[in-house]
Amino acid sequence: MTAAAGPVTPILDRFDLSGKVAVVTGASSGLGVAYAAALAQAGAALALGARRADRLDDTVRAVREAGGQAIGIPTDVCRIEDCAALVAGALESFGRVDILVNNAGTGGEYHGVVDDPPEHFRRTVDINLHGSYWMIQACARVMGPGSSIVNISSVMALTTAKMPAAAYSASKAGVLGLTRDLAAQLGPMGIRVNAILPGVFPSEATAHYSENYRRKIVAAKIPIGRIGKPEEIAAVVVFLASEAAAYITGVSLPVDGGVLIN
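Request: output the structure for the sequence above.
Response:
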């Protein structure tokens, strides 16, 4: 015997984030700015965190000028007190936290295993993995049922670009393990936890690539034949944050133009 069906939410309404509050880290540049803009367009109020206060202010200003609500709080996710302060700021300004986009991260540097300075490896893991955990911990304490956490990992968690990037790859692989475990822990509380694995997108890390090098990457690695557009991955963040993904948790979703099928 099946339960009586309740009212059905129209499909497009499931993507609406009106009345929701999203915390986005790493919101001062690159894809973090795109995530913030997309979430605001979907109706969410934003509490934005990043280390570079001046560039964070630029993101806040852009969201407000587009008609959205946003505050910015300088945040180093390696500092547990900064993570707590960002969440406290969201509560003070908007009264709740429904969404976390764990975007703060670093690509680190390229060092072979025999030459990798310990401080480089530790710092990369501290930002990419530990910082994600501290932000989840702070948000999970105040999130209610129906909330969503979106962790930003990388295709490098599952493959290699044949560059010496052990710290980055290991930390981003750790984010996938974190996602699975916390999806199990937080599911009974009504909180979903998923991860996105971006492929190649415009960013500060890729800005120095020559056009010739970009073409080589596309030809060798990306079956869809081009690098990604920021709005394409931002749309996936909105999806996972929204009721449209209400029955999805513990998933690691590549957004990579087919990199991982090679």
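The chain has a mean pLDDT of 95.
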